[in-house]
Write a structure and sequence with these properties.
Helices cover about 50% and strands about 10% of the residues. By secondary structure, the protein is α/β, with parallel strands linked by helices. A 7-stranded parallel β-sheet has the order 3-2-4-1-5-6-7, with helices on both faces. Strand 6, helix 10 and strand 7 form a beta-alpha-beta unit. The longest helix has 28 residues.
Length: about 325
């Protein structure tokens, strides 16, 4: 059996190996993914984002437990900062979600950002496809949490949760229009602390002021206490409510299209960057950098030269 065949049969070890090959950009990974793609598109993708310390990991852990009690199979992609020493993910997933690590219906995998901006690891969408093809009902994607709203997760997920906490600057953060654009569900975690009700009321007031057609989804604001596992059922209900809305409104197709667009553009960007780095053994890029530093060329002209060189190389 090929690695892809084993993944399609639900083999966790094979899935872990394939995700590692995607992450390492192994030359055999695209061939394995060719066999994977026709079996994707069934899992429901939930993104969990928000500032560091907001309680995203604990909320994710609670959602795993809730959905498992409903007999759902779960995949989890925990995107972590890159270790400066090893290049791997730090804050390992099994430390945070250890109680589920022995459950055969739950597959948890950490991915390192490796410097990739936007809150998503470069291999994240590939990992989503692998878990989807394994037959997972729900895939939870927890982003690294950079303190900024990570817009890429909106394109990668069917439902995006934005987790905020009172008294940590989130009140100011909510004034940015981006948070309203990014969130399908707003979660005010640590609801037992002072200011939670006020933050919830402020969010609801801002949502009410936002101009939108009546048929458009209006994000609910859910209060949770992740550390005490309170509000989890309400949050899960909101997730399923959004899924039903997308199905009934036809919005699900648009979400899948955006995910395909993001994956394609990331693949193109990665291909072009890798190609440029390899030109003339790396000397071509360094020569252009020297020319920029010495004022012999400007960035726009250098970019056009690179495009021309790429065209010539591809013609060959």
């Amino acid at each position: 059996m090929t690695l892809a065949d084993k993944v399609l049969a639900g083999d966790v070890q094979a899935a872990a190996r394939l995700i590692s090959r995607i992450e390492d950009e192994s030359p055999d990974a695209p061939g394995e993914m060719d066999a994977i793609y026709p079996h994707t598109g069934k899992a429901y993708i939930v993104g969990v984002t928000g500032a560091p310390g907001a309680g995203k990991s604990t909320l994710t852990d609670n959602l795993i437990d809730f959905f498992r009690k409903q007999d759902k199979t779960i995949g989890v992609i925990a995107i972590d900062p890159t270790s400066a020493l090893t290049g791997g993910a730090i804050l390992g997933d099994r430390v945070r979600m250890q109680r589920h690590s022995a459950d055969p219906a739950v597959f948890i995998r950490s991915l390192a950002t490796r410097g990739w901006v936007g809150g998503l690891a470069r291999a994240a969408i590939g990992a989503i496809h692998v878990m989807d093809a394994m037959g997972k009902d729900i895939v939870l994607v927890e982003t690294v949490g950079s303190g900024q709203i990570e817009i890429d997760i909106v394109k990668a997920a069917d439902t995006t949760l934005v987790v905020l906490t009172p008294g940590s600057g989130d009140e100011i953060q909510t004034m940015k229009a981006g948070i309203l654009e990014a969130a399908d569900i707003l979660v005010v975690n640590k609801a037992d602390t002072e200011g939670a009700d006020r933050l919830k009321a402020d969010l609801e007031s801002m949502l009410a002021l936002k101009e939108s057609p009546p048929e458009e989804w209006r994000p609910p604001v859910i209060l949770t206490e992740a550390i005490n596992d309170k509000g989890t059922a309400e949050l899960a209900g909101a997730i399923m409510g959004h899924r039903d809305f997308l199905v009934e409104s036809g919005g699900m197709a648009g979400r899948k299209r955006e995910r395909a667009r993001l994956e394609l553009l990331e693949a193109v960007e990665g291909f072009v960057k890798d190609f440029i780095y390899r030109l003339d053994g790396g000397d071509y890029l360094e020569k252009l950098v020297d020319d920029l530093l010495n004022g012999r060329i400007n960035p726009q002209r250098a970019a056009r030269e690179i495009a021309g060189r790429l065209a010539d190389e591809l013609d060959k």
